[in-house]
Structures are given as C-alpha cells and as structure tokens.
Amino acid sequence: xxxxxxxxxxxxxxxxxxxxxxxxxxxxxxxxxxxxxxxxxxxxxxxxxxxxxxxxxxxxxxxxxxxxxxxxxxxxxxxxxxxxxxxxxxxxxxxxxxxxxxxxxxxxxxxxxxxxxxxxxxxxxxxxxxxxxxxxxxxxxxxxxxxxxxxxxxxxxxxxxxxxxxxxxxxxxxxxxxxxxxxxxxxxxxxxxxxxxxxxxxxxxxxxxxxxxxxxxxxxxxxxxxxxxxxxxxxxxxxx
Length: 240
Fold this sequence. Notes:
- This protein is an alpha/beta fold.
- It has a single domain, classed as TIM Barrel (Alpha-Beta Barrel).
- It is built from eight helices and eight strands.
- Strands 1, 2, 3, 4, 5, 6, 7 and 8 form an eight-stranded mixed β-sheet that branches.
- The protein is globular, with a radius of gyration of 16 Å.
C-alpha cells in the first residue's frame, strides 16, 4: 500500500468515477500521507476540463482532513518538439507535472524513433517531473533504453503505473521494459515512482499487482521514491 499516490483521476478526466473529496476521505481512511490530483490534459478527447481548471487547482487547501493534497496534471505530449497541451503559465501553477504520449489525443503514432525523440524532447524541456507509464509500448512504440537514460540525466522520474500490470494488460515485452527502467535507475543511483493511475477510490494506493512481479523485474523497496517523502518532495521542489 502506498502512503503517497500521485497519479489519480477524478470525474473531471471524463472516464473516472469519483470526486476529489471522495479520494481525500479514502486517503484519510487508509492513513496516507499525500495524494496528487492529475487529470488528463485538455487535448485528450475524453477530458472534461480546459486549462482554466488546472490554473484554479491552487485554490484547494494544501491539507484537508490531515491529507496533503498536491495539484498536478497528466499532460499530453502533442508534437515531436515535445510540447505539452498546457501552456507554461498553467504549468507553473501546479505542484508537479506528469506527461507522456497518449492515443486519445491528436498525436499520431510516428514509429519508435520519432516517438522516442518526442518523449526525450519533453524530458529535456524541464517542464515535467514524471514520465507516466513509459514501459507501455502497445500502439505507441518507443526505445525504453534511450528514454530511461535521458530521464535519469534530467531528474525526471520514471513511473511504474500499476493500472497496466493486470494479467490482461502486461506481457513479456512490458516486463522487459520494466526491467530496463529499473536497471537504468539503479545505474544512475536514482529512484523510480509508483502510481496507481486510480480511476476510483478503491484503487487508491493499491499496489498488489506490482507486489506480484517485484522480484521478477528486480524492483526493491529502496528504489521506490514513494517510500522517501522528504526526497520526493525535495525533487518536486515543494513543501511537505
């Protein structure tokens, strides 16, 4: 069970099923330290929000019922330059920014080489803190070795998204990409972040699917930055 879960979607993402308040109450029940709200960026065909929504997140208190509530976004990479679907002013108002290429946007699959270039350009831009689910290769291929190396060099966290670890969604290729991510993180003396990509409160903090494959992919608890709140908050440049 995670004590910090920074990948959460509410009804504002268009395909999730709970509100911010419901997540906070669940986090309190689970005695979690912090949660982060990360709706899909506005270029997603399913998103119900515009950039204004993200700009106004700062009006939500930092701590509610004893739970630290961080305001973020799961933005979308929209071109080969690595641009995002949220402008710089909006990004500056957030506690942290997650991003990757998503199939529900105008970005079209350009093959592994160009997709990799697009992702690396985003990493180098300095606009993101977390690269979401980089081990997922279905439909949008990329070179995980190059991406992992660049992320580590630029202090961008690579995410293990547990929503993609069900028996239906994970395969040998995904497991191998996870191993590559973990080996690279260890090589650079960095850490990885785990997120549940929750779409309802019953998924919040639940990493039981990851626990089943941790040994197989070589993941040890000392590599998970969620276990080190001070280090995580320092990396995100926000107060605990």
